[in-house]
User: Fold these one by one.
Assistant:
Number 1:
Amino acid sequence: MTDPKDATRDAAATPVPTGEKADAAATVKPGESTTPAAAAAQATSETALEAGAQNTGRAGAGTTIPIIDVRYGMFGVHGSGDTSGYGGLVAPVAMPGPSERPYGGWFDEVVDILAEVLDESGTGFADAVPSVVVDRGELTLNVAREHLVEVAQALRDDQDLRFELSMGVNGVHYPHETGEELHAVYHLVSVTHGRRLRLEVTAPDDDPHIPSTVGVYPANDWHERETWDFFGIVFDGHPGLARIEMPDDWPGHPQRKDYPLGGIPVEYKGATTPPPDQRRSYS
Amino acid sequence: MSNVHATRPVVDDEATAAVPTFEASGGDWSSIAEEAARLGEERIVVNMGPQHPSTHGVLRLMLEIEGETVTEARAGIGYLHTGIEKNMEFRTWTQGVTFCTRMDYVAPLFQEAGYCLAVEKLLGITDDVPEKASVIRVLMMELNRIASHFICLGTGGNELGATTIMTLAFQGREHILQIFELITGLRMNHAYIRPGGVVQDLPPGAVDAIREALVGVRKFAGDLSKLMTANPILKLRYQNVGYLNLAGCMALGMTGPILRSAGLPYDVRKANPYSGYETYDFDVPTGTNADAWDRMMVRFEEMWQSIHIVEQALDRLAKLGPHAPVMVADKKIAWPAQLAVGPDGQGNSLEHIKEIMGTSMEALIHHFKLVTEGFRVPAGQAWSEVEHPRGVLGVHVVSDGGTRPYRAHFRDPSFNNLQAVSVMCEGGNLADVVASVASIDPVLGGVDR
């Protein structure tokens, strides 16, 4: 590990929370809008990455913050030499990492009851829900895919949980998260208790299977079809997993990151505008 | 299941090859009917839509009928899919508004509001949005709710053959569209609500114009209500049609007037208030019979409640005065200039042009950076819910810390609610399919996105 003083000097060019500062930031009450781990990991030097990794090593037991991308340089300039002076910047992009107790508000209560139900059934909370993320006042349970249906069933049926209304499923594709590229995100609402939470389930690109939750939440029928259609996640046990938006014979899954947007350049009064995915982008 | 592949056809042609098909084209219907009779085929599959005047746009219904009874009903969608969510990943966070407003084109301001609330949550500026911006958002959303319900009731009547209902409803809606045009410049696809506030303040005289328009809205809503709620034909067509009880609604994720017609007063404006809805006085109407008639009655009552909210918002605007801010104070997010109408059309105000072109290079750089590059949003994900005229609109946005959304997903209420077509229609009359679908009030732009 780098000496904290060196770390401070290395990162002097950018305001990076390292050392004691990062520790102070990590103690911010969960549920607030600040994301210390993410803020640290998004900083712009290798030292910052190390500092971020240290934060999460302390925060979660054996879990790391999900790095979804690494950015190089600034202003989106690539291949024309380093004219900006910022070409050496390396910025890992991290999503908010796992949170520690107390989660704040009713989050602890829900997690406790869910843990009780899952431990009683023999599944074990730690196996079914590897990590809990509290970010921006929202509770996210990262659920292991093999236990998804059981977790959903418990959330729906236990009288103290009662997440009876499903807001559907949608996918997110993180091509840089090796081994868990595909995420299925479920939003549940408890009308009884006035609560809402998010389940996040991951699957690797080469085995894109997640069990279907249609048996628990019939509302997810079309939503799972849409997620299959757009991301190629196969929901095992779905009663009829056909494409829903795209034509049946469409090749590929359009909302994956490796699927191009398409488009043609447009000429107007002598000037040509390239299609949106080929225009300048800012890293 | 591991051999499922993207390029593999989903329809198994061998399995469907044995099913006899009857093609009706040209004037040879009698020969098809003869052939069907000869084969002793009782089962008839009728394809309704995607181009059919009573399917609310390009909805395709595949109905299996026996005589006049529908035995199986399926909805086919996707004819209006334009990849809006994918497109949003290639524009800045602010430009995203111009895309999502085009999803459900009958209620565009709700997508804008839901998206902006989610982006504000990601930015952590929810509490910094000025009060006037929130009041204007509530005002615009409630006016839009009235307009949307006008469309629902009017087209529903039109689909049953009552053209007067439609013309009355469209006249009432016209008053609201003129207000939208006055405030946003456009009758639809406004892109008026932006992350951090609204794009510009109300023009002078807008509050009075809205009060004036409300007179017309009240008149047409009243006339429409008189025409529809005591109409014996409409009662026969709507009562006990499209029934879906509370258990069915919860299982299928129904929200909005469909859920409330089954008796549950679930409304996000009350359950999880946003934009200051907890400070407005209004009721959540419910029904008890869970049929198309109760949904119509719920919508009528919601229109009156919306008018009530609009009046409260107008009073607050009068109190706030003309100079209250409508955008967050953070110059890294707020658009640098107000719009103005010049001799060559609408654009940045002349004073602003004068400043950035003539006096301050830094202001020019700032304008250029913010408008072309946009602002950055810290990495993470957020979920926001707004009470759309058709139910709960959920917006899930994911940021990777860049200037564009990494992913934006809209849980459109019409998309979810269309799943109820089978439950509502099967076992009923073919003619009731039209009434049932009208009571769901799907807008296919939102369904397909």
Number 2:
Amino acid sequence: MNSLYYQKRLSRNIGDKFFTSLSVICALIAILPLIFLVTYILIKGGSQITPELFTLEPNPPGDDLDAGGINPALIGTLIITTIASIIAIPVGVGGGIYLAEYSKGGAFSRFIRFGVNVLAGVPSIIAGVFIYALIISTKILFGSMYSGLAGGMALSILMLPTVIKTTDEGLKLVPNELRYASLGVGASMYTTILKVTLPSAFRSIATGVVLGIARAAGETAPLIFTALFSYYYITGLGDLFYEMGSLAVLIYNFALEPYDAQNKLAWAASFILVLSILSVNIFSRILAAFTEKTKRV
Amino acid sequence: MIKTNKKIPKNIILSLENVSISYGTFEAVRNVFCNFKKGNITSLIGPSGCGKSTVLRSLNRMNDLIPNCSLKGTVLFDGTNIYDKRVDPVEVRRRIGMVFQQPNPFPKSIYENIAFGARINGFTGNMNELVEISLRKAALWDECKDKLNDSGYSLSGGQQQRLCIARTIAIEPEIILMDEPCSALDPISTLKIEETMHELKKNYTIIIVTHNMQQALRVSDMTAFFNAIEYEDGDGGKVGYLAEFNSTKKIFNSPKEKTTQEYISGKFG
């Protein structure tokens, strides 16, 4: 008869220990790149942060030892991401509403769901090339070629699937009883969605939107083909139709420069970019936790 | 107007004529003829799967929300077949309100729960007054007059259900449909809802589905007993039908049908 006590030597217990440690090690290896990456960028970029960084234009490479600041790129990223959001959020939320509320699971809605999944897997550079072919090479936007507007459009393609999916899934989580309740007091479908189901799904939709924005803000490839880059301050609305700088492309350009000053500026920009994307992600978490708490007061 | 020429007695508010309802190819209930009297409480009873809830939901076109659900026959309300193509289901639901099995208040304040329906129905009068009157009619005013701004979810299950009733009353429907309104509630809450129903009877017609035969006996004037049987031409599944419809007294004291007798005495169900 075997003893009931735990025996270390038993082969099953040894195997158990082995696989437990193996999975812990794998988990650690998986998280290591993130930790290294963030610390490296914090150290390399953090030391470059000065007040001038946020106010100056970048100097052309090779001019002098001072590389200047990232003001145009910072503002450019904000503008391009905003344009992307203005396009992607209404279209994405609207599409999600159609899928979750109106479609009856027919061929058309299945096709859209499939298409959204495919779109989510499209490499970001393809989105850039697509907008390049559609808008820039045709000069369809009032004759302008590379522009912040086109950059925003390219990013909106990348945001769309996230927004549609989270809206669709968020709305599906709203219990049907709530819809019946609203329709039962004589609300139309439109009022029901606007006043009852959408507010109930606000949390997941907002989280999806914020994550979509975070993804778009860090993209480089689509912008290389569309917004290109600019060294100069953004001064007015007209600048939307011209080349526009962005943090991601600034990093891409300046990291490749042979000059130390430009490399340092790229590090500083990386720091700002990582920090802002990180804070946007954290913000989405807080938003989720906050609305979760207030949902059932 | 989409009126029919058929003569219907004035005291009949809602009339089912040869109604059959199917979900896809599955027939849930067949050939129902039934007249609901104005100002009455009519209860629909019967074993599970006899289609009584299906019939109830068909009365204000809630079945529209279930994919594949189709209805044959006519449901006459106010001289109009509510299944006519020209009828707007939203308008039907404004005049025929519904209280569901599970209490389902909106995730809003108690006040807003009631104001919501009234507002979307174009109510322009004194909203505070309407909220108070509706809550009073649903016998909930005393319990929540001091916390109208609290969430509807802060109430107990029975109070939530009365809030749902108040919400329905606020849109001033002519008929209130109740789908097993007390099945999720404790006996004391059930009793309160039944008292509320007696109060409501003065102004509204109520049609209630219940599994509780004592409840049918306590609250209703008329009782419709639904049953389900296998039809020869069916695909083997049971199809619901209206077995007997009479005053509650007669159904419970001297039913004409043998199955009714067996059901109310608890032999099956």
Number 3:
Amino acid sequence: MLYIKCPHCGLRSQNEFSYGGDATVKRPELNKEISDQEWDNFVYLRKSPRGKHLELWQHISGCRQWIKVERDTLTHEIFTTLKSNEEL
Amino acid sequence: MQKYSVFSLIKNAFKGHKDWEVAWKDPNPKSEYDVIIIGGGGHGLATAYYLAKEHNITKVAIIEKGWIGGGNVGRNTTIIRSNYMHDENGLFSEFGMDLWRNMSQDLNFNVMFSPRGIINLAHSDAQMNVYSRRGNSMRLNGIDAVLLNREEVRKIIPMADFSENVRFPIFGGLMQPSAGTARHDAVAWGYARQADSMGVDIIQNCEVTGFDISNGKILGIRTSKGDIKAKKIGLCVAGSTNILAEKLNMTLPVETHLLQACVSEPIKPILNSVVTFGAGHFYCSQSDKGEMVMGGDLDGYNSYAQRGNLPTLQHVLTEGIAMFPFLSKLKMLRTWGGIMDMSMDGSPIIDKTHIEGLYLNCGWCYGGFKATPASGWTFAHTIAQDKPHELNEGYSLNRFSTGHLIDEKGLGTKTWIS
């Protein structure tokens, strides 16, 4: 069981959260001409590192806020959690 | 190579089984090979075997960080099937079914292929319609498919929950009678033994630490046992694909996730087919030892842990008990996890790369075991001929940017969206 410290609600079990993937991926700017490659990078391509990974979770059975979690993908250690608008 | 047969068994029994040859040698790496396959799992071993057998390329090495067959080929639920709707997946998998049917003879190794059939249960009229469409698509591609109604399913699996008041009543199911199971370890060992006998070097406990690339061309690899030169290099590393991609400065449409499986204590024979629950993600078969072999969803977040987490296991087994209530009485014997190379459309990648001489075989999601022979066969062809075979043309690396996805179920990496 993972325990994730929601920055809004405090420490809760993994069962209250749903996963949202890599948080470092940036959507291309709206109304800007972009190449297929840029779109490809955003939609499909992922580093998926072994080790520290900054990722999105939603506290879906709690405050329903999206949050950022820095977690180790090998050991599952959670280093920091942030509000969605905060940077590491 | 010593042939395995009832006669060799009797002969060696008289000698107290002391004179059996080793099944494969343990060589030191040479300084140069024609082809290096990275990853000594099912796909890597099969690739080396078909390179030697079909293309006469025998100056081949398999580089394995751990021991052969220690990854996903030793961690799966042994299901073999070709019940796909899309042409690319159906034709590829059905080609593999032919290889499965002849594998024990071909490899002179009993892989215990058991075509016991797979049933995908349907729990609504809408799902019956979807299965009818999938079954028809399969039959158009020459794959056997039978649509079963509720009573026909009940005859095959009377122990499933057919009571009236269940949340997900069984309306029927789609069966592929020629699907089945095989002994997974034997597949790895059978391929390894044959590949070794044809001159392939199987190098275990050897980690790839880097690649030598010059002017966009691969020259060799750096390993914990020294540098090795090669004209061509093939990656068959499943859940470690992203780790090696990082060393190659490549970013792939693949994420690494964890999938768990488990077996119950052994019980008397009760289930003689593979059954999947249609209202969630749970599948079950009974091993020859009597254990119920079960699996289901990914843990749901990027992971390299090779061991699972209980909430997912509980979720999966809840579905199992909804389908087969008797499972609640069984004790769990073992659980384990493997790391999956989840591609973004749920279909694999077998292709060349932008680096000359470097070939990629990955993205198998949860379906890698059944694909072992077809994957090895087509990857060997792609490497030997320097172009994909028509069977794996659709499994291209650039299909994501061109929009030619093969989205069988939309069960790629982003399972949290579905």
Number 4:
Amino acid sequence: MSVHEFQEQEYSKKIDFKIWKKVFRYVFSYKKLVATLIFFMFSVALADAIFPQMTQRAIDDFIVPQQMDGIETFIFQFILLILWQATNIFIFIATAGKIEMNLAYDIREEAFLKLQKLSFSYYDRTPNGWIMARMTSDIRRLGEIISWGLVDIIWGLSLMVIIAVFMVIYNWQLALITLAVVPLLALISIYFQKKILEAYRQVRKINSKITGAFSEGISGAVTTKVLVGEEKHLQEFQSITGDMRRNSIRAITFSALFLPIVLTLSSVSMALVVWSGGNRVIAETLTYGTLVLFISYATQYFEPIREVARVIAELQQAQASAERVMSLVNEELDVFDSETVLEKYGTLLDPKRENWEPLEGHIDFKQVTFRYKNGETVLENFDLQVKAGESIALVGETGSGKSTIVNLICRFYEPTEGEICIDGSNYKDRSLSWLHENIGYVLQSPHLFSGTIEENIRFGKLDASMDEIIHAAKLVNAHDFIERFPLGYQTQVGEGGGKLSTGEKQLISFARAVIANPKIFVLDEATSSIDTETEKKIQDAISKVLKGRTSFVIAHRLSTIVNSDRILVIDKGEVIEEGTHDTLMSVKGHYYQLFTNQYKENKLRAMMSD
Amino acid sequence: MEKLKSLWAFMENNRMKYVASMLLMGLSVGFSLMVPVIIQVLVDTFIGQIDPEHFLVASMVQRMGGTEWLRSNLWVGGVMIIIVTIIYGVLMFFANRLSAEASENIAKNMRDNLYNHIQHLDYDTHKNSDSGDLIQRATSDIDTVRRFLAVQFMEVGRAIFMVSIALYVMIQLSWKMTLAAMALTPVIFIFAFVFFLKAQTAFRLSDEAEAEMSTVIQENLSGTRVVRAFSREKYEIDKFKKKNREYTDKTYTLIKYLAYYWSISDFVAFTSIGLVLVSGVYFANLGEITLGGIIVFVQYEYRLLWPIRQMGRILSDLGKAMVAADRIQEIMDKPIEKVSEEEKCPPITGQIVFDNVSFSYPDDLNRKVLNQVSFQVERGQTIGVIGRTGSGKSSLIHLLGRLYDPTEGTILMDGVPIQSIQKKWLRQHIGIVLQEPFLYSKTIRDNINFSNNSSEKAIYEAAKTASIHDVIKSFDQGYDTLVGEKGVTLSGGQKQRLAIARTLINDYPILAFDDSLSAVDTETDIAIRKALSERRQGITSFIISHRVASVYESDWIMVIEDGKVVESGTHDELMEKKGYYHKIWDMQMQTIQALEA
């Protein structure tokens, strides 16, 4: 039974350094870029703090004394300052961008590699949508937060320190007065940034609900019509959009509240400067320029605080992304090749084909027990011997264990106990690639990849010539319909093969399996409806494909069952009957029941009409 | 202008909120620009003891106790700064809050209307539209419009207020310096505008590359079994690496463009500030401006540069909002199912007449999907319909439920022409099970009990009849199991059975199964049909199938070929005829007969 409840894990709120350490492993390979970034962010902050000083100098050197000597030097320095800052800005954006994209690239690649190795028990319990979200938005988010978060934190902290230092140098008493509100400012900023992010997170959650509702409303439109459910659905939808409105307004209200509060605080700081600094100007212990400089610094101080507070809040949010991505990357494999096997037969990416033994196709289940991770037993002490070239039909109800047997043969799962031998030796002593290159597999619901028909058939044998491809297509009766397309073999099949009919997809997936010329063939037959003609073609294709190969068919088509060398009737993980069609019919047991139940009425009718 | 019209129409009922919000915004900008003026007065008059030129400022100073008193009480200036800032902040808060309410109301209305409209679109429109595109319009296009109304519209308003008020004050102080201060602002504005217009291509390329990469991942995930079984991991990894690289490179190119943009536009912006400083020095030397005046200029310049840059960007984005609004409007303009006043709700018992009914799809009027079909069904009869894929058999059901109306001929329900019956009423009396059933991502219970008015017992019974009760019970959460991504993945046959249960729970006088047992194995098919025939006493039912085994027990059978009823009668009659029905029968029974021999 392919039923697995998937529970999204709940993640902690505290900053977890263990997780970030894992993430920073990736950052480490870009130390030089990171060093460059840190250097230039400091440089940006320094220039930012120097700009108000230029105003101060203009006032004190030229405006107040009403003279223009030395203005050329001033202009020259100003131009240098701008050029310096423009360069800083270019370099820091380009560098941060490079770090961001490279990090995401690396993490994504590692995760993808992992996905190629994870066993099917992982796929069984993890919805594709979940993995997709990790691979796209979460990884993108990690790249962003690490590089741009670094930018904002370094810039923010440097600017605060630099401004504070400058202020102390100019006038330490005034500096203290100006900075008096900073602690309060920082606390309020952190509080609000957290609230704002949380509120927007809620908004995003509801937004994905809206997307889901739209998608359901669109793909289920006809069903809704037929069931007259339009009003019911509109009401449900309106309650989601109502939620959206309430939460969005709430989020905007938080941000709208934050700015005035912060502005008021910095105006207090400015007022203090004006009052105390103004008095010093009157007493002539402070220049006009310095007073204006302190006023500028008082306003300038608020932005870095806000940015740092925002990054801290975002880090907490991004931690969930980090945890999810790392949980994927660090997921333990349950089906893998041992060190000795890897050494002899090569890895997935670098197979040593020269050491591979030829596969003949004897398969032996020895006391195989298989349990899901949740403890549910599917097979117990299961024995089965299959000779090379024998065709086996597996018959039984959904959930009887047929699929598990097939998955075990393919080593998509491994036995919990016991062993499976191929040509006499435990298949764990050979590599996964060795086995898979010798297995042909056709699925109940055929899966094609976007690209042309030719590419899809070639998937079975990457170096196949066009002749071989056409030959394979002819063998499975696919050639005719392919040729009927204006573009023939170059026809695009669309995403997931969506532009072809189910029958066409099935025939192509047969061609793909045939061209691989596997020793073992596994077929999970479709039950879905196909018109009678295509049905015949497929039956014909199947019989050709199975010829001379060890084959396992989860069978639904009568002809396939009848033509197989041996039928296994599976119930609750056990072979309750086995034999050819004729022997099983004569035993008049389960198979007979199953078979006659299905066809008794038909037969009676057929007899009567003759 | 047409385009602006749809945006304008979306704003209905919320326009006053926008006006109020804009007014508050204007006022708040005015107050925010007062702070530098207060500093100017402080520096020039309080400290520098220059008499203010502007009569308003002069009278204020006079009223507050005169220059001398203020000079020894500088805190008054400080307090004014705080008060003005608070007023500015409060006004801004309400402006933002009001615009949020307005734009969220609009977004809600747009979403609700669109959703409702989509639900009521013709079946034909649905069949011919790309659902991905529809979802895109319903989500990201609406969001583009919302963002435009909530953020960009307000920002443009703010920028206009800011530039006008600042210009007014600056010209009052010195028109010559105003020229120097504003000299480069058109450059900044145009640069931003042109840059973001051009950068749209780079943004698009990056988005497309990301979409391509996602497709590779998506297909790899859904095809894992195929990849593994063919040992094509390396092939897939190489394919992925290529797309990952492309996406990374294209996005990095975009970021580099942005790096150019920011460094150049910052360069121009700082140059502009330099111009203010140098011209300030020059005019102060000539005695044409005071120190306080220069401070106002410098502070205004810093405040103006950002909104001007943003305005360039927003205007370059304006096209997107228009296109988005247009794309939403396009859906809204598609015809919905007509409801006419004259339609009635007559009693429907299950007596049906097809009189010379022909039907063609609106987009292909030359091809008759159904061609002069006539037959009569009495209440309680079971009619089997058999034919090849594409023979037109499903169209019969579509016509029954008025998903389409016939192009010629009439369909009568208890003697009443179907076109004069309300669609809703009609569908409430016909239980249609579609070929490809759709289940909602709710619990199994909620899926079966779609109309929320059945007892637990009735739900179980319907599920039992559809042979799905035991399957449901085998799930950990039974009837409370969620269907779909977040819950259980059902097989095609299980879905069909749930859909049947969902239909059976209501007492329809007419049932129609559109090949809805195709994914169910033969044994279950028989079980379901048995259970059904016990239940459906007095119910008229249509069973459409490609399997003879599913229809042969019907009261009578129609064979449809190329839109025409080529044969009809009971199973025995049709077998006698040795026509098309006989042929299909033979073909499907061949294997069994061979076995029998």
